[in-house]
């Protein structure tokens, strides 16, 4: 017996079953979903397993009374909030910190903390995995592939797909299912079951060969891979799984292993207020953050020497370094081995201090205290443990004091005369941007002030080859996450660079030659006088004529390349005077709205004084800049906002300053942050830094700075390659103007998904280059393929083929092309029963094209209406599938296929005739259909009459019975109302003498039907 190749290659076999098998090996108990339903309070809307939760509460809190067990369960099940994300925050607090309940333990009634998990001993908890759990929403039932329960609480939801369906799998798993289940988009309103996600911590989409995770509220573009299973090895996974690990195995073992899962839930989740939208955002760690924090904690615990307890964490700029520091602080605070520790967060700049402080405060970290002065720093560090102190390194220079040594063995005893603030061992210093150029000798002063502290240095740039002092001060590397890895993981966008106006560059040119070019219209005597007084690089750099030439180029570049996609810019200059010159020149040339961000003094000349701003005004300008809709487009700086400034809206940095080494890496990283629609950051170089980029970065090991900046010119060969790749889909199409031939290629959903991916890549490359003339040869194909994509979106009713994910420049090209070439009727969605649909069919040139159009329109209509009238539309679905199968098997031709589908449409359109014939509403006809399934007409009856009068009457009675209940506001959310509706229906069906075993399934179907039709 032979088998067809690929038989059984589905998500169940290739992804879902292997995932469950590995989870079982990790310690999860597998229970079928049906076995859990009894513990769900008798309702498929309930997701908490109250019986298992109650048992876990009694085990972890043996003193808890039955009444308080019930109260603790209700604190979870009955929790309410204004939105899903607010509910998620509330319940995360309950699960990690516990709740307080009043109970008498023999010393009078007192508040006692109730624990939901044993975080210290993960195996002391109840881990369950189940498949195909049915959860009732307002109108629909959702069925996640896998749900992980811990102590009766759903913590993880997993959607599995087959790797054989191509790129489409990710959109199907995340957008079509996980986001719909949460009802995150208005289009998904009442189509999911958001109550499932109150306690859920992680959401996973996997196809075995790829796996991505997010958390509640995460948009699809921010789902990430978990690429390292720390603290486990791939060899260990292979041993447990019994096979070479796949990305799915790595994620499951690395994130969902009981030890790691509870660690993530407790220590690696924050809720942060988004600075742009002001919305609450739930964030969970990436693998490098989890790894770095736990490695740092392990070193602090295990080092034999006091001075060996720290080290350096190098995570490239933009990859979440501030959150890594936050999570390390949180975990140190909870670590029992370091009782009531003092945590000192140190930066070298006031703006970094404010940035770190802001991150901690927005994320709800308890009581971080900023040292406003040296005296304040002394007070905070000598006043006992338990504090989290934020300070700049400079405050340590002037400290004086006497150490308080409590006789702890193994501690360093400060030498006489050293300025010591605390000699305690449980002091942890987390220093930001901890490399030589930032700290210099001040690191030694910190060591003197805190002689027995553990020092962790965090940096977004690598340690240079000559800088041994940083490693001597903080210790060896704890964790590294270089630039190329961050880009490969999608944690940051790649940075491209482009050198412009070479005749005005400062580097690589003779200063005399540049001087003569800038002042060529002056006499020889004037030039000599100017050179004598102003003949320095900085003076030449801010020469009005040079700045004017750069500003004219900059305006054109920004308005054609950056502004159309909704992004903003930063200009980096040599001095405050140069920054002011740029601001005034941009204003005079009517360029984009810009503002100078700089420090100021009372001694400044009037030209500078005119641009003075207070600290509050500077912060207001920054907030306006961060707001994508605000017209403030450009920030002009000389040394501020080059580090610690997180602005996803910034896509381009116009560089006119001699930056090098760490300063260069820190500055250009301003443009590498993720943002919607942002495919890359760009550095436009007017100084000449990129001309000598290798020289500028030679102090670093080559592997450490690989990929830091890529020449924009390199995008052309990549564009050429992507162009060739996307055209290969249509290599068999003879006439390149034949839209229907192109659509035929895309008839298969997997092919469409692959085409969609390659088209996006092609359009991104075009968008990067436009309006560069080098992109012009590709525009004709871009326009045509864009039209094909839009026509496919309409033909196949495929929402993933949406040009909104293309850059604004590309969208305009495609929209303009569609508007002018006479195929617009094929580009706009039209209703199946409209005259416009008939006109579309008539415009098509072949029966094959018309049949394809009709097939997908019918499929879409059936999909939309199936739940409103399941019996009728299920029968139409079966008919349509039979027609399609017959055509593929060549039992019928295109013309016959079209004729049969036209009949299906006529039957669908004639559904109103059944309402008229039966004298029932549309809802009544749908209920009648359900009754026909369980009480069909007999053969003899069918000869005499068309409709079953008994079922018609019973349908009327059921609707009349339910109508008063359905008038109750929000009845779909009220279990007591639904319980009464089920009771009333059962009574009517029993009176109608329906077989007892058929009553319960029928009642559930009618209830679901009423939710779909009435619960809006």
UniProtKB/TrEMBL annotation:
Catalytic activity: Endonucleolytic cleavage of DNA to give random double-stranded fragments with terminal 5'-phosphates, ATP is simultaneously hydrolyzed
Alphabetized UniProt keyword annotations: ATP-binding, DNA-binding, Endonuclease, Hydrolase, Nuclease, Nucleotide-binding, Restriction system
Domain Helicase C-terminal: 554-713
GO biological process, one term: DNA restriction-modification system
Keyword Lyase: no
Family: Belongs to the HsdR family.
Summary of subunit composition and partner proteins: The type I restriction/modification system is composed of three polypeptides R, M and S.
Listed name of the protein: Type I restriction enzyme endonuclease subunit
Organism of provenance: Chondromyces apiculatus DSM 436
